[in-house]
Every structure is written in C-alpha cells, then in structure tokens.
C-alpha cells in the first residue's frame, strides 16, 4: 500500500467514525430544544434573501438551512451524517418549506466551483478535523462577492471548555486533526480564509440555556444525546474510576458556567463567535 493510499484510507475511517458519532444519541432532540435560535441568527447575519442559492455546510437537521429557505432562498443542506436529515425534513415540512438534502463531506464538498451566492455553517464545519481543507471548500463553492457566514462555539466559552475538559479522558486525536472550538477564535478563522475574503465582521454573543435544573442534569442529558460525549464515555466503559472522574469534571464545569438565584432556574450562557465576510 502506498503512503498516499494509506492516508486516504485513514481519512475514510476517520470520517466513518465521525458519521457514527453524530448519528449516536439524539442530536435532533438536543438541537430542537436548545439550539434553534442560532440558525436564524446566522441567516440574518448573512443577509439571506429570496432567490439566492444557499449552501448550509455540516447542516445537521437544518438549523440554519430551514430559516434560509423560509426567506425564499433555494437551499442545499449538506452533511456527512445523513441520518440527521429525517428530522430536518420533518421540520421543513412543518414550516412549509422545501430544500435539497445532500450527503457531503465538508472537506470535499460535492458541488461545483462558485455555485452558491451564500455559504454558511452553524456549529457544523467546526467539527471537520482538517480546518484548512474545510475553509478552502467553503470558499471554492462560493461565488465571488458571495457571503460566507459562520457561527461557532468559542474556545473559552462553555462548549469549548467542555471539549477541553474531555480531552484528557478521550483517545488521542488522529494526526493533523485540530480542535473544533478553534473555529470560534477570530484570528484562527481569519488565518484560514486569509486575503480571499473582504468585509469581515465578527461578534461574540451568548446563547442562554435554561434546559437544566442543576449541573448534574446537563451531564445526564448530554451523555445520552450528544455524540462527542457519548463517544468519550464509550471509550471509558471499562474504567469506572475515569467515568466517575469525568462525571465530576463536567458537573463542576457546568456549575462554574451556570447561574441560579433563589427560586430562579439554573441558567447557562454558551458563548459563540458570529463571523461573516464576502468572498473577494
């Protein structure tokens, strides 16, 4: 086997693992309960209008793709994990819109050069392991002057810190793979896109999450719903001491990011970076 063939096979295996990870648990339910407003935020920031041709990369259940279709755009929702599309199709039907759902790897998108007026990703492309390859694809399929819109968790925010907390417990990442929350760092994204974009605008915002009564509720819910956490716990199944240690570490993290006063519910603030630009 040649070195190039070996690299290609390793990449295929990595993508298969990613697909299985995101298909595990119940990400559609989690997204529906906690993340719905993020898609609309990104669509507004991108200035999506009717008759535009729009691509949502790593679209999942269509959290951004569906609001874009509601604006009258012609939308393609692409994702490595087509198992997520069923929930997206149902939600699109409930909202009275139609869009095209296509399986696709963010690092090798199955679309022509300069095919779309707008290319966006809402907490999706950040999980592609090779950041430069994914960034190059976002730009390749976007028309000159078209909009690029990204919404990603920041490294210092809750979800970024959740991944940092899990890192010592998780299997080592494959060579060349980069941490997803780096996409929430403005300098990192500017470096990926370089001089190929203009009119860059960035804003840090937070998502208020009120789904949990106490920190331990967050841990229980994510252990059953969120693929990346499910995957780490699966790797620890034979070491109950490490399972308990990770339980405690995640509970402590949720507690440090949460806030409750008196009879008010436990609330968390999850920080994200909103990044928009135009292809030069």
TrEMBL record:
Family annotation (Pfam families): Methyltransf_25 (PF13649)
Q: What is an example of a GO molecular function annotated in this UniProt entry? A: methyltransferase activity
Start and end of every Methyltransferase domain?
Answer: 54-146
SUPFAM superfamilies named in the record: S-adenosyl-L-methionine-dependent methyltransferases
- The superkingdom listed in its UniProt entry is Bacteria
Family matches, as InterPro entries: Methyltransf_25, SAM-dependent_MTases_sf
Per the UniProt entry, the signal peptide is none
This protein's name: Methyltransferase domain-containing protein
């Amino acid at each position: 086997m040649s070195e190039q063939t070996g690299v290609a096979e390793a990449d295929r295996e990595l993508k298969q693992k990613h697909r299985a990870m995101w298909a595990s648990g119940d990400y559609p339910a989690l997204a529906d309960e906690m993340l719905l407003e993020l898609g609309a935020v990104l669509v507004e920031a991108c200035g999506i209008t009717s008759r535009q041709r729009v691509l949502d990369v790593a679209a999942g259940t269509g959290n951004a793709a569906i609001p874009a279709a509601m604006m009258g755009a012609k939308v393609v929702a692409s994702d490595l994990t087509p198992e997520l599309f069923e929930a997206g199709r149902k939600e699109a039907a409930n909202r009275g819109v139609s869009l095209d759902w296509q399986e696709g790897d963010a690092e090798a998108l199955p679309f022509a050069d300069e095919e779309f007026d707008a290319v966006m990703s809402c907490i999706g492309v950040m999980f592609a392991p090779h950041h430069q390859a994914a960034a190059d694809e976002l730009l390749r399929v976007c028309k000159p002057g078209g909009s690029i819109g990204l919404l990603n968790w920041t490294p210092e925010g809750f979800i970024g810190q959740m991944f940092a907390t899990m890192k010592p417990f998780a299997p080592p990442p494959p060579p060349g793979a980069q941490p997803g929350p780096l996409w929430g760092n403005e300098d990192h994204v500017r470096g990926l896109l370089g001089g190929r974009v203009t009119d860059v605008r960035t804003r840090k915002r937070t998502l208020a999450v009120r789904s949990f009564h106490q920190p331990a509720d967050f841990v229980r819910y994510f252990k059953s719903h969120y693929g990346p956490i499910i995957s780490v716990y699966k790797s620890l199944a034979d070491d109950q001491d490490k399972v308990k240690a990770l339980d405690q570490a995640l509970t402590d993290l949720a507690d440090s990011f949460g806030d409750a006063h008196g009879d008010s519910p436990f609330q968390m603030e999850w920080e994200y970076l909103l990044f928009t630009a135009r292809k030069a």
